[in-house]
Amino acid sequence: MISTAIRVARVGSVAELAAAALMMLGFPCLMLAALVPSVYAFAAAAAVTYLADHYLHRKGSYLINRLSKVRAGLSIRFLIRQLLLVLLLARLSLTDDLIFYGAIACFIAFYGLQAPHGALVTLIRNRRRMPVATRNVDLASRIRIPDAPPQRLLHRSAEKMLHLDLAAVVGLLVSSAIDSPPAGFIGIAVTLGLGALYVLALLPYIRSRRIPPKDEKVLAAVDDWLRAYKPQTVLYFSGSKDSAYQVNMWLETMEQLDTRPLIILRERVILQNLAPTTVPVICVPGGVHLMNMDLSTVRVALYAANVGKNIHMLRVPTMKHVFIGHGDSDKLASVNPFSKVYDEVWTAGRAGRDRYAIADVGVRDEDIVEVGRPQLAPIQTWQGVPEGRIPTVLYAPTWEGWDDNPGNTSILLAGENIVRKLVQADPPVRVLYKPHPFTGTRSARAKAAHERITALVEKAAAERAADPRFTADAAAQAQAKAELARIEARLTALAGAGGEKGDEAEATRDGLVDVAKHEEIARLRAEWNDAYWRSFGSWQHRVISGAEPRLYDCFNVSDAMVSDISSVVSDFIASGKPYAVTDSAGLGAEEFKRQNTAVRAAVILSNSAAELGELLAAVRDPASDPLAEDRKELKRYLLGPDEPKSIDQFNTAVANLALKAETRNVGQATRAAAGAAGTTPAKAVPAQRVASAGETDGVTTG
Prior knowledge:
By secondary structure, the chain is an alpha/beta fold. The chain contains 28 helices and 16 strands. The strands form three sheets. Strands 1-4-3-2-5-6-7-8 form an eight-stranded mixed β-sheet. α2 packs antiparallel against α3.
């Protein structure tokens, strides 16, 4: 019932749900206390509403945003509390006292301060918002971008301003309780004084020397940088906050390009969620600004998603346009008919090409290029179980999804059977349980199953630790833990070294990456991963939650994996290791393989996990593994050949397409020159149609 309430209210936890309930109940209690009247009951209810409101704001609760939609927003809630306080004073027969009129005048004057405060905050934010935001682009040497106002002035400014009424509310309640008007007047003076000071503190930041240059000057500075940098390959992306992972997965590939890379984003929220990178990034929300930007040196544009805003870049004929997507799979999104608009579509392997042929959505076979998956480079190829170590099996189920389809996850019907058989296996294996981070967020059943599986693994780990067959090198583990502490301290120091930027304009000015710091962080993360696995026995079962160690790190220390239908399986295939996939929906092995390409070389598990022995046999005796060749063939089919490396294939594809773009541009220039001279070139290169009279950019105006 609680989980249903959390889902309906769209709050993140039981604590948030409790705070929301207390806040909603607090206001009727305030009215009741005012009518009784009871100063102490009113004070208690007011404290509850203040604290609950503050907690929900600090958590960024979805419910807070919804309240404003039903005319119960932040200002209204504060106003109601103040009106109820006035009602309390009236019920206490203080209507003939000066403190009653002082309270009314205070709240009117206080709300009079809200208008200039809100106007100043909005004006400062709007005037400091530039038409573009950047990272790793040197604008500071081209234009002056002043420091941002202190965050304490602008961050959650409306909430801070409204909470200044607390002094007046407390003063008036104390005055009513002890019959001492001075306490109330002191509170009123503090509230109005602090409110006026807050407004005055904002005034200096609307002066011209405290704001960035006008849009035209900023855009000119960006064009000047572009002319100096001369980008050749662009990764273009538009999407919602939740889709930031789709561009983040390509950052390392962009850093390894042989050409000069540039990332163009269309939404500021994507920039805020972009992972650290050394590649220059320009966020251009305005379509007109983007279309007027000097991208004359760009020859290849890469698109990670099919979205409407792609048209603003697709209209540029001097570059070739490529859909690279954000992962190959059998989902319909992988064969979107929109892909016809691109010059080429790049897939990982032959499977992607066949997928388009079967879908018959108009993408021509000659426009498809197989480039592998550069992101899978960190996944190591299996060389068998190392000498002297027991096999490690990774159980990495996906989450329950948004519906109750039994095929979504194995956790509900098969999870406990899988883990129980693994921890009881003889000869023994080590189990790593890494659930999806969303597991249990929607379904109470899934959460309960996850907790039971966790308990199974932890109990087995405790029993194994007491088993004399398994001994630990205490000194080596202590040394590894000391290394972990040292590395984590250094990472924390590096993370805090840059400090928080005041606003987007300041982040743009100071957004040049420290390459040495970037490289040190990457090196430290690799060292942390190595120390983590040495900090406990290679035979020790483990539940792995959180972002670290990453999924690919778990792949590399495992000898086999059990999972569900998801991108996890497709990625694991790159390792060449044995794997099993659970047919939780009970389709049957043949139908399950027919519907899902990625499981064609897998051991198919029923919900009883009775087939798990086949997977363990393949791990213990690779020579007699009946699916070994099938896995190699499937890997080539899905991900392409191992050689040349995927990043080399990717760079070659970029170079080949850039050459086509340059050939087209030279042909157009030759044709234009011949037309200006009044002659016809001997061999015209096919080009974009010239707009006739009455047309603008290919669109008829008549």
